[in-house]
Amino acid sequence: MKYFICFIIHVLIAGMSAHAQGYYLDEGEKVALYPDVEWIKGRGFTAFDSSRIYIIELWATWCKPCIEAMPHLDTLSTKYRQNIVFIAQSVMEDDIKKVRSFIENRWPHYTLNFAFAGGSGSDFDKKWLKPSGTSVLPRTFVVMNNTLVWITTPASINESVVQLLLSGKFTINAAMKLQKGGREVLLTQIIE
After folding, report:
1. CATH fold of 22-155
2. CA 23 → CA 26, 76, 131, distances in Å?
3. Which residue intervals define the domain Redoxin in the entry (predicted)?
4. pLDDT tens digits, residue range 11-21?
5. Rounded CA gap, 147 and 164, in Å?
6. How confident is the model at residue 181, as a pLDDT?
């Protein structure tokens, strides 16, 4: 029994050590380059512009909550596309033809920028999904001033949060308070 416990402890320590040496992508991390993806619709880019705000929605054709969130994201994109780059980033799928067809048939008039990352082992998977610990969808990344400022879900992205981003007064705490109520009072205090 002692040997078994020692073995388990050894495996855990080795695993934590190997994990600690890896690259992590978390809130507050600087990001300069966008992973290598194939742009299906809209304007593609390879590097973040520090003067722009990016809202990156991770989705897949098999993810019902992702698909249900898309109209809301497109509404925000239509309204704020002059100030914010909205990206619908397909992930965790290998078949680009299927994704392209899905977009063309389901969302032909959407203003979002659509990109295909590919499945496991893709550049996006290696540089964003695994380092951020993303294993479930939908997931939203918000980038501002070349910094990943928030990892959240599409339900958290609303008009009030967009206004915080545009005013330059965004913090995760302020955004979370907006989710819990008191939107008008808190937003007025933050923007003033």
Report:
1. Glutaredoxin (3.40.30)
2. 10, 32, 6
3. 55-146
4. 444 444 334 44
5. 16
6. 54
Quick one: pLDDT band at residue 180, thresholds 50, 70, 90? low
Is a pLDDT exceeding 60 seen at residue 7? no
Instruction: Compute CA distances 111 → 46, 72, 192, whole Å.
Output: 19, 12, 31
pLDDT of residue 190: 46
**Ranges for all domains in the chain classified under CATH 3.40.30.10:** 22-155
Give the model confidence (pLDDT) of 37-60 as tens digits. 999 999 999 999 999 999 999 999
Can you give the chain as a three-state secondary structure string? CHHHHHHHHHHHHHHHHHHHCCCCCCCCCECCECCCCEEEECCCCCECCCCCEEEEEEECCCCHHHHHHHHHHHHHHHHHCCCEEEEEEECCCCCHHHHHHHHHHHCCCCCCEEEECCCCCCHHHHHHHHHHCCCCCCEEEEEECCEEEEEECHHHCCHHHHHHHHHCCCCHHHHHHHHCCCHHHHHHHHHC
Predicted TM-score (pTM) of this structure? 0.82
